[in-house]
Task: inverse folding
């Protein structure tokens, strides 16, 4: 076996080992969390390190307790999931509604200060969230939006909009201008060009930005705590899980079930949109 063949085989096996190591590091915590959530608390206390659960030990009582309403003795996570879904979907839709035309304008139109836009957008993230938390709390309290899900949506939009515009702007700049010029020659207006040419080609980036916005709104905790702590019926799932973890009387199996409920929608959404996230621009490339 020559040297090139040895290097090729070695790199192939090294790549497999690295991928396997990353899979173990990322998948194992979720797997152990899932195992803990379906074990009775008695079995967990006897053997906390068990990684395999027999069929006789499996239980879904923890999930029933997590999802059951608080009036029925549960933790009320079904309400929290509904609130989080409403907030995350609304924040994602509003962000994309503003970010798509804004990013297209920055990428294609010429105006004063265009080159400084990137810095201004990213400058928002130079400051920790806690710095703007108190001013937002005061402003939203004066506006009567504190304690409302709509107010929380506006906060999330303000957090995700700058980076969404930045990401989409970079993607719009990769679309050949000649494609839009061809559509203009055929009689399409600016809106028609955006709808028929730019948006279809930018769909992978739009899906990636939408997933990013949804994850931020779904998992965010600080602003949810600040704005909704005194409104238990409007808590999001991350806020409910955090306060659930503070309860000494809550079994850890129930806490793990709540963690699975928090994590599973994001995992499902990611795998459901994986094809669009990885789709390239080859189908929309110019043909000469």
Result:
């Amino acid at each position: 076996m020559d040297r090139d063949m040895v290097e090729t085989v070695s790199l192939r096996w090294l790549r497999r080992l690295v991928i396997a190591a990353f899979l173990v590091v990322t998948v194992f915590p979720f797997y152990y969390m899932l195992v803990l959530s379906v074990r009775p608390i008695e079995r967990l206390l006897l053997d906390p390190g068990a990684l395999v659960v027999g069929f006789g030990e499996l239980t879904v009582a923890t999930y029933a307790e997590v999802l059951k309403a608080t009036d029925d003795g549960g933790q009320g996570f079904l309400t929290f999931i509904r609130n989080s879904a409403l907030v995350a979907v609304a924040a994602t839709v509003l962000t994309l509604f503003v970010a798509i035309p804004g990013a297209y304008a920055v990428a294609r139109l010429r105006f004063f200060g265009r080159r400084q836009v990137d810095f201004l957008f990213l400058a928002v993230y130079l400051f920790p969230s806690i710095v703007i938390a108190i001013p937002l709390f005061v402003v939203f309290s004066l506006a009567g939006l504190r304690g409302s899900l709509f107010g929380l949506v506006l906060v999330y939009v303000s957090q995700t909009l700058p980076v969404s515009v930045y990401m989409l702007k970079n993607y719009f700049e990769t679309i050949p201008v000649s494609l839009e010029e061809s559509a203009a020659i055929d009689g399409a207006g600016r809106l028609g060009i955006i709808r028929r040419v730019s948006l279809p080609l930018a769909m992978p980036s739009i899906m990636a930005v939408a997933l990013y916005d949804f994850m931020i709104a779904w998992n965010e905790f600080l602003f949810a705590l600040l704005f909704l702590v005194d409104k238990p019926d409007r808590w999001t799932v991350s806020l409910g899980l955090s306060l659930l973890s503070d309860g000494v009387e809550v079994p850890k199996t129930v806490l793990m079930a709540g963690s699975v409920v928090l994590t599973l929608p994001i995992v499902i959404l990611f795998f459901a949109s994986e094809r669009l996230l990885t789709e390239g621009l080859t189908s929309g490339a110019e043909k000469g």
Observations:
- The two ends are 44 Å apart (CA to CA).
